Amino acid sequence: MTKVHEEPPVLPTQQDEVAAAGSELIGGPLGRHARLGGHWLTPVRVVILVALGMFALGMVQKLPCYDWAWFQGAGSQYTHACYSDIPHLYSARGFADGLIPYFDRFPDGDPKYGDMQYVEYPVLTGAFMQFASWLTPGGGSIQHREQLYWMVNAGMLMICAVVIAYCVARTHRRRPWDALLFALAPAFALTATINWDLLAIALTAAATLMWSRGRAVLFGVFIGLATAAKLYPVLLLGVLFVLCWRAGKWRAFGAALLGAAGSWLLVNGPVMYFAWDGWKRFYVFSQERPIDFGSVWLLISQRSGNPLDGANTYATVLTLLLCAAIGLLTLAAPRRPRFAQLAFLVVAAFILANKVYSPQYVLWLIPLAALARPRWRDFLIWQTGEVMYFLGIWFYLAYTTSGDKHQGLPVEGYQLAIAAHLIATLYLCAVVVRDILLPERDVVRQDGSDDPSGGVLDGAEDVFTLAHMTKAPQDAAPSQGQRVEWGADLRD
């Protein structure tokens, strides 16, 4: 019997009208028996090359800031939409002076926290920042060193982008071309070097790949490391919990949980022990941070004139409610949702309910969107809203820093940009939920697959659903043999 992973890859130009139309730029859709560039130019390598090209374009987009705008006051870097935290924090967080994050304080100037403060990033991100500072040559002006620091970080982040492209292309064995959604995403190019988010995203993508191969412990290890770089990846353990509950795969969930806890403690434990005050800074800052740019709470506050002093509680409650709704959806759906679908929904819920939405947060969702809903039309609708927000926040900041010139986007325009981001993200969430409720419309399952990113859950029977409240076979889910038969029927 032919194994699933030996079947030919699914060609998006044969399933997606937008992909087919776009392929006309390079000669039209591939034929069924066409071979792409011989043995070397595989789909995975093409995806990586495209991702590298888009990353390079994003670096070019930052060129006005690299040359002068980062160092000529705030306004120019906003009007050119090329702002990045990286060069500014090289000096502002003490790296230029040889300070060690979590152990050494830097001058903060915020009266709320005192004159000196610690780095406000999780431990693994702080280590990434520190390592980049060690690679940055000393000497010369501070401007030159900030430029070099950004270049060093860009090189390291480019490696992270390659890891993401590889992992997304390999997660669904028969659908490597879906990773082009990540590689060609406009928001990926625009936001890749704003901050250090690609590190956590690369680790999360590696975790997703490990789970798709049934390696629960390694999934947990990578999730633990990703959570040590950014908080949001821990949400994927919640996704796994509900899916394993429905399928009765408690051993796999336990292995993943132990792997995550072990790797997280391995990274955080020494810093917690030797530099507790520095370690906890990120968590205290996240808890006490007021509502900020891009959030639904800022939009409500600006429109109503209410400062929303309880926004932290509102955001926490809304996040919990949305996650609970996703859990109920998982247990009530006619067919067990795919892992990537739920991962996208829970991270999107966290973003939508958060007190702040920095423009680079879109990167958290792009790889998950490529796996959850690999349809170009819906993906591009969402990306349009995100690009509008990317431009909106910089032009709004230009307006607020231009004084009497009023150069940029007034507050009403910025509110429209926030609304565009919120509506576009909700739209993509809606079509993913529709795919869960109507699994026959899920493009990933149209070849007879169950859950290519599901690991041990792929093809497993359900033991608990809200519909039966008891052991109930998942009649809708095909077995491994059935999936091969359906795939063969599609090919004949």
Automatic annotation (TrEMBL):
Protein's UniProt name: Glycosyltransferase 87 family protein
Residue segments, region Disordered: 472-492
Keywords on record: Cell membrane, Membrane, Transferase, Transmembrane, Transmembrane helix
Subcellular compartments: Cell membrane
Family per record: Belongs to the glycosyltransferase 87 family.
Segments passing through the bilayer: 40-60, 148-169, 181-211, 217-243, 255-276, 312-333, 339-358, 379-397
Topological category with respect to the lipid bilayer: Multi-pass membrane protein
Keyword Translocase: no
Signal peptide: none
InterPro entries from the UniProt entry: GT87, UCP010361
A Pfam cross-reference name: GT87
